[in-house]
Design a protein that fits this description.
- This is Avidin.
- Keywords: Biotin, Disulfide bond, Glycoprotein, Secreted, Signal.
- The protein has a single domain, classed as Lipocalin (Beta Barrel), CATH 2.40.128.30.
- Helix content is 12%, strand content 42%.
- The protein is built from 1 helix and 8 strands; from the N terminus they run αββββββββ.
- An 8-stranded antiparallel β-barrel has the order 1-2-3-4-5-6-7-8.
- The protein is elongated and about 80 Å long.
Length: 148
Amino acid sequence: MVHTTPFLLVLSLALVAPSLSATKCVLTGQWTNDLGSNMTIGAINGRGEFPGSYYTAVTATTNKIKESPLQGSQHRTNEQGQPTFGFTVNWSFSDSITVFTGQCYMDKDGKEVLKTMWLLRSHVDNIEDDWKATRVGINIFTRLHPQK
């Protein structure tokens, strides 16, 4: 009986270990949000910084929508695998900029979800119009899987 205990321990660790690694939410990859906008988050460097791109499905301008660059940072010391992060999108087709902040979660079905809040700052011509220059909202992103 003494000899079977280490074997059972090793066997249980081998069976549980893959499910533990699957519970980490990873920012890198392609995402889509509840409005149909798509973004790609690139590799995260040792300082927690990452590049990316954002293609919005919605805009308040009449300009043609173009893919826009994003630059962000992930909190590096999160041990639970559900990191907090933030990124800025510098819109290529308008004179506005948006900052997002959020957290990467694993939902009850084991799917990755990014819950975010954003501030969009648009250019206004004078300080009297400053009141209408900033919008706030939320978006929920899910991983975009390639079509088969």
